[in-house]
Amino acid sequence: MFKFILRRSLIAIPQLFLLSILIFLLAQAMPGDALSGRFINNPNLDPAYQSELRDKLGLNDPLPQQYARWIGNLVQGELGMSYVHNVKVETMLESRIANTFWLGLATLILTYLIAIPLGVIAGRWPDTYTDKFIVTYSYVSFSIPIFVFALIMLYIFGFTLGWFPTGGSVDVRVEPGSWDWYLSKLHHLLLPALSSALLATTSTIQYLRNEIIDTKLKDFVKTARAKGTPERKVYSRHIFRNSLLPVAAFLGYDIVFILGGSIFIEQIFSYPGLGQLFVDSITQRDFAVVNVLVMLYGFLSILGTLLSDIILSIVDPRIRID
Amino acid sequence: MATPAVNNNNTEIEKVKSPSGFKIIVREFIKDKVALISLILFLGIVLYVYIYSMGLDTKEVTRVDIFNQFQEPGPVHWLGTDYGGRDVYNQLILGARNSLTIGIAITLITSIIGIALGLLAGYYGGWVDNVVMRTVDFVLVLPALMIIIVYVSIVPEFDVRKFIFIMSLFYWTSKCRLIRSKALAEREHEYVAASKTLGTPDWKIMLFQVLPNLSSIIIVNMTLNLAGNIGIETSLTYLGFGLPESVPSLGTLISYSRNPEVMENKPWVWLPAAILILVLMLCINFIGNALKRAADARQRLG
User: Fold this and answer.
1) What is the ipTM, given to two decimal places?
2) CATH number for the domain harbouring residue B29
3) Per the domain annotation, does A1 fall within a domain?
4) How far is Cα B117 from Cα B136, in angstroms, rounded to an integer?
5) Which end of chain A has less Cβ packing within 10 Å, N or C?
6) B1 at interface of A, judged by CB pairs closer than 8 A
7) A40 and A127 inside one domain
8) Where exactly are the transmembrane stretches of this chain (chain B) (predicted)?
9) Rounded distance, CA A314 to CA B184, Å?
10) Using alpha carbons only, how large is chain A's radius of gyration in Å?
11) How far apart are CA A141 and CA A131, in angstroms?
12) Considering the entire predicted model, what is its pTM?
C-alpha cells in the first residue's frame, strides 16, 4: 500500500512540472508582460528606457532562464504584478480566496447532506419507486449543465420568490464582524452552494447505493443477522459503516468538480470569489492574474485527484495499480 | 441485424441464435417508455431544427432592429425579441442547430482520437499503454475550462474551427480510458490469440475483431458524450468564450440574462433556450441509459 501511495505521489510531481511549463508557455503567448501594469498610467515613458528596463528585469533572457526565475518566484509566493490594477496579485487574491473557500465548503457539506441519505435509502430499498426516483435524479443531475441549472435556481428562488439575495457575498449595510454579518454571509452562500451541490451528488449517490447493495450480501452481514441483530442495527452498525468509507474517497474528486463549477456559479450569482476574478481578469486582459489562477486551479486539481486516489487505494484495494 | 437466411446451412443455427443487437435495443426502448418518449422527442426536435433552419439566413436573423427592442411574445414574434430587436424564436432554432452540429462534431473527433489511442494502449499494453495513460492522467488533471478560455481569448482570428480544435484537445481522455480498459480485457480472449496464430496483422485484429466487440460501449459513450459536449459548448458561450458572435448558439441567448433586467423581467429572451438545453440533455441521457442497459445483459428490462 505504501508502495502505491509513493508511486502515485511520484506521478504528481512530473504532472506539476508539466503544468507549470504549459502555463509558462501560455503566459509567453499572452500579450503583455510584467511591465505592462506599471506603464499603463504612463504612456509617455521613453521606449528606450522601457527596453532597458526589460533587459534589466531579464524579460529578454532565453526562455529556460526566464522559466527558472518564474518558478522560483512562484514557489516563494511572489506572484507578480497585475497588468491592469498596478497592485500585487497576492493582494487581489486575498479576499477572494476566503470567499471561494467558504462557498466550496458550504457546497461540500450540502453535497454530502443530500447525497448520503439518498444513497442509503436507494441502497437499502433497491428497485422500489423511491430508488428509481433517486437513481433517475442522479442521472439527471449528471447531465444538466451547471450554468443552466444555477440560472433557473436564481430566477426562481432569487428573483421570482425573493427568498435569497441575487448577488454579492454579503449585505454591505451590515456592520462587518457582527452576528447579522455572519448570517448575511450565510444567506448569500446558500443558493449558490445549493445549486452546485444538487449537481455534485451523482457519484456519491451511485457509489454508495452500489456499495450498500454489495455489502448486504457479505458474510459478516449474514452473521450479524444470524446472531439476531435488529435490522436497523444491521444497517447502521454493519452495512452503513462499511459502505461509507469508500464515499470519503470522493472528497478529492468532488473538490475538483466544485472548483470547476465555481467559475460559472460565481459569475451567475455575482459572488466575488476566484472564479469571478478569473473571468473578470480575462475580460480585462489582465494576464498576470489569469496565469496565477490557472496555476492555482491546476495545482488544486492535481492535489484533489491525488488525495482521492490515495484514499480510494486504502479503502478499496481493487483499484490499486502496481 | 440478423443475417437473412439465404444460406441453407445457416438456417438451423439462426433459430437458436440470441437476438441481434438491434432487436435488443428496440425491445429495450419499447419496455422503457421514458426512453421511447425521449427518443421521439429528440428526433423530432433535431429534424424540426435542421429543416426549419434551412429557410433561415444567419445574417438576416442576427440583424439588429433597434425599434423592435424587447417586444413581448406575440403573433409576429412568437417568443418576442431581444435587446437588439432580433426575433428570439429564429435565434433559438439557429442556436440549437449550431449547438447540435458543434456538439456532434466534437463528439466524433474526440471519439476517433479516444478510440484509436485507447485501442492501441489496451491492445499492445506495455510502454505504449504507459505513455498513453500517463498522457491521459495529465490531461485529466489540467484545468481544462480555464485553459480553453485563455486560448479563446488570446488566439488571433478565433473561429468555429479553432473552437472545435481546442475542445477536442481536452475531451478525448475519458473515452480513451474506457476503450483502453475494455480492449485490455478483450485481448485476453481466445479469438484474438487464434487470429494471432493465423498470422492476422495486429491492425486487422484491432479494427475488425476487437473494435466491433466494443461497438455497443462506444455507442453508449458517444451518446452520453454528446450531451456533455453540448453542455460545455453552451457553458463557454454563455460566459462569452465559446462560439463567436457570428455563429449564435443556445448559450448566446442565455448569455443575455447576464443583464439583471433581462434576467428578472424579460425571461422570454433566455428561458426558452435554457429549457431547450434541459430538454435536449434529458432526452439524450434517457436514450443513452436505455442503450447502456441494452448493452449489458444483466441490466436489461426487456
Assistant:
1) 0.83
2) 1.10.3720.10
3) no
4) 10
5) C
6) no
7) no
8) 34-53, 100-124, 136-154, 205-224, 236-256, 268-291
9) 24
10) 24
11) 15
12) 0.83
